[in-house]
């Protein structure tokens, strides 16, 4: 079974995905794979520099990802330009990693912010959207990543609004504590396992 966990910046989607991994799922982290593509593919780096500025590369040849995010993720135009560069290289890698994850565990969890934006929600049997109030999310990200709350709000404003998620999605409220989110993760895990068991029983 393939399960997607998505949500806006600071929602806690990655935290929920890791909790499901701890419970026994295999995990595919789209952001980590995107970083690998950017770091390892010289053509991607060349295209990013051409699109967003040569000063993104420091004197040691490293890409300043935070500067790239500031330029690309605070508006829909920059985000689309970034996706146009990365998606053709990243999407087949994501598909391959998901296929491999299904061989590791009966439940493969995909942690990604752009499930709906890329139109790949049909890849998954279940899609969970983690939601958090904007101020709460900004505070969490500011504490964990050292970003300013204004920057977090700008990035979230360029992302999909909660009411824009369409189709058969399941919302997970994450305005509470970590313990509350863990309890919700355990409920989700039990439900996923139950669904798997019912599916096997019907086939037999």
Walk me through what this model shows.
- The protein has helices spanning 13-23, 30-40, 42-52, 65-72, 76-104, 134-145, 149-157, 178-203; strands at residues 2-7, 26-29, 108-111, 126-131, 170-173.
- It is an alpha/beta fold and 204 residues long.
- The chain has a single domain (2-31, 90-203), classed as P-loop containing nucleotide triphosphate hydrolases (Rossmann fold).
- A five-stranded parallel beta sheet has the order 2-3-1-4-5, with helices on both faces.
- Helix 6 (134-145) crosses helix 7.
- The two termini are 17 Å apart.
In short:
With about 200 residues, this protein is of the alpha/beta class. The chain is built from eight helices and five strands.
Question: What is the CATH homology-level superfamily?
Answer: P-loop containing nucleotide triphosphate hydrolases
Summed up, the helix count is: 8
Query: Can you give the mean pLDDT?
Result: 85
- Quickly give the structural class: alpha/beta
Q: Please compute the radius of gyration using only Cα atoms.
A: 18 Å
Largest sheet, in brief, is:
5 strands, parallel
Spatial shape: globular
The N- to C-terminal Cα distance equals 17 Å
Low-confidence stretches: none
Strand content: 5-15%
């Amino acid at each position: 079974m393939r399960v997607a966990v998505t949500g806006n910046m600071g929602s806690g989607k990655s935290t929920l995905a890791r909790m499901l991994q701890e419970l026994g799922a295999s995990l595919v982290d789209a952001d980590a794979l995107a970083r690998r593509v950017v770091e390892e593919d010289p053509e991607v780096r060349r295209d990013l520099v051409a699109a967003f500025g040569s000063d993104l590369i420091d004197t040691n040849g490293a890409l300043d990802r935070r500067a790239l995010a500031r330029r690309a993720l605070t508006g829909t135009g920059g985000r689309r330009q970034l996706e146009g560069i990365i998606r053709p290289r990243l999407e087949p890698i994501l598909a391959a990693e998901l296929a491999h994850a299904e061989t590791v565990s009966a439940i493969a969890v995909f942690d990604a912010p752009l499930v709906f934006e890329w139109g790949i929600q049909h890849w998954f049997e279940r899609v969970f959207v983690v939601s958090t109030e904007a101020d709460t999310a900004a505070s969490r990200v500011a504490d964990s990543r050292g970003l300013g709350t204004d920057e977090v709000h700008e990035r979230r404003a360029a992302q999909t609004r909660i009411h824009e998620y369409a189709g058969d999605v399941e919302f997970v409220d994450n305005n509470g504590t970590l313990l509350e989110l863990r309890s919700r993760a355990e409920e989700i895990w039990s439900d996923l396992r139950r669904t798997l068991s019912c599916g096997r029983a019907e086939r037999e």
